[in-house]
Each structure stands twice: as C-alpha cells, then as structure tokens.
Amino acid sequence: MFAELQSHYLFEDRFGRPGKGNDKGKVEGLVGYVRRNFMTPLPVAESFDALNIRLLDACTKRRQAILRGQSMTISERMQSDISAFMPLPPTPYDACHKIATRVSSMSLVRYRNNDYSVPTRYGHQEVLAKGYVDRVEIVCRGETVAVHARSYDKAEFIYNPLHYLALLEHKSKALDQAAPLDDWRLADCVYRLRRLMEARMGNSGRREFIQVLRLMEDFHQHLVEQAIAEALRLGAISFDAVKMLLLAKLENRPARLDLTFYPYLPVATVGATDPRAYLGLVANAAAIEPSARVSA
C-alpha cells in the first residue's frame, strides 16, 4: 500500500527510527498542537463529514497566524512552498484498504470479519473490497456495485434489501422469510398496499408488490412511498399505477392511466355533456323564478 501511495505522488521515502520521536520532531509537534487545540475537549459530531468540516475550518483560521520568528502568515508561506512543488496528479489517491475476494452463494462479500451484501446477479464473481474509514465499497470489473457504512464489530451481516429484490421477484413466497428485509423500515402505506394486492390477486399480487419495491432501486424510497400513498388514495392498486404516479410527480405532469388493463379496479362511468340538457335546466330555472317571486 505504501508503494502504491509513493508511486502515485512520486516522492522519496525517509523513515524514522522506531521510538525516536526526535527523527521527525516537526511532525510530532504538529500532532501535539492539533490534539491540544482541535481535539480537546473530545469533539462530538454527527458524522465524519461534519467532523472534517469542523477541522478544516479550524485549519483555515490558523493559516492567518504569524508564527514567532516569521514575517509572513502560514498561508503566505504555504503558497511559497507550493510554487516549488511538483503539480499534483489529476486524480487524488484512493486512500483505502483493498482486498480481492469472491462473492458467496448468499450474495455476500466478507471484509474484516463482516459480511456485506451485493446484488444477487454478482453471485460467485471475483470482486475487489475497498475499506475506507466510514464505508466499504465493492467493485466488480471496474464498476462499484455496492456501498455500505463500515462496521467495526465482528461477525455482522450488513444487508441492503434492494440487492435481493430481483431474486425475490422470482421466489415471491420467500418474501416473509428473507433475512435481508427484516430491518427494512417502510411506511405504513407500503404494508397496506401489499395487503390489498395479495387480497385481490393472491400470489401474483405478492409478485407485483415486489415490483413496486424494486422501484426503490432507481428512485429514492420516500418518493416511492409518496406515490404509493397517492395510489391508495385514488384506489389504483397496481404496480403500473404507482410507477405512473411516481414518474408524473418527477416530471411535474398529470398522471394518465389506462384502466382497461386492470378489470378488477373500480371503474367510474362519466357521461358526455349534452348542451340540450343545459338548455333544459335554464328553461326550468326561468319557469321556477316567477312563481318564487309570487309566493314571496
């Protein structure tokens, strides 16, 4: 890994002796400064990204300081140093731990004693697991096929339910026993849609419900749930109805659905407007108005 880093940035190595902090005194001094000024008290942040933003802000403010014995700010001195450096590579170094491995029959990839899921179509294939501080990425033939939040526990299974929906569509009876779906949090309207679909169409309704879930492979979950809620409100209980409402919302256009393909849905009959009927109403209103005045 170090040779890979060195070849990416083209620098010469100069190693310090073990236990000899004075070999790299400036580095040790800067580490101590950061610990005392940026990490005390122990910072608390919602995520690594939030912590990095806070540390970057602290470093940016420090760049305006003028150190003892110097006449320029840290920022000005850094610009002077940068002008003497070689230009950086066009792409940054991919700082992660990489291991070559194989997807198991359960569509899982093991990295550091934890198992991470990938889409079932990549079963038994050779992949590259890339471990970052906050995430694990699975790459197959140069394509990133799965990204998970990294777990530092042991013997855990980290699933993405979407990775197994394509298989469940062909084995719909396993929907209730699928472990990857156990901790999947969905809106109540999703479960109501399933009950209605299965009540109306049986096993084919369960398969169509899985097709609705597969919309989350391409669209955000909350958008699909909104489309499901709207379909339930309209009484349009089908995959095509949910998909039509979802696309209509994204494209900001009215939804149009051909109900002839769904004979089990309630059909409303709306007659065409007859101008003669309107004229009859006007005549009746004119006849009623004088008698109303007389009675008054």
Q: Can you put this structure into words, describing what you see?
A:
With 296 residues, the chain is an alpha+beta fold. The chain folds into three domains: 2-84, no CATH class; 97-158, no CATH class; 164-261, no CATH class. The chain has ten helices and seven strands. The strands form two sheets. A four-stranded antiparallel sheet has the order 1-4-5-6, with no helix packed on it. A hairpin with a 2-residue loop joins strand 5 and strand 6 (143-149). The longest helix has 21 residues, at 275-295. It is elongated and about 105 Å long.
Strand order of the largest sheet: 1-4-5-6
Stretches with pLDDT under 50, minimum 5 residues: none
Tell me the number of structural domains: 3
Strand and helix order: HHHHEEEEEEEHHHHHH
Helical coverage, percent range: 40-55%
Q: Cα-atom Rg, whole angstroms? A: 32 Å
Number of DSSP helical runs: 10
What is the rounded distance between the termini? 99 Å
Report the structural category.
Answer: alpha+beta
Q: How confident is the prediction overall: mean pLDDT?
A: 89
Say how many strands there are: 7
Query: How does the overall form come out from the CA principal axes?
Result: elongated
How much of the sequence is in beta strands? 5-15%
What does the largest sheet look like? 4 strands, antiparallel
Chart the SSEs and their pairings.
Elements (H helix, E strand, L loop, with lengths): L1 H8 L15 H13 L10 H15 L11 H11 L12 E6 L5 E4 L2 E4 L8 E6 L3 E6 L2 E7 L7 E2 L6 H6 L17 H14 L1 H12 L6 H14 L4 H13 L23 H21 L1
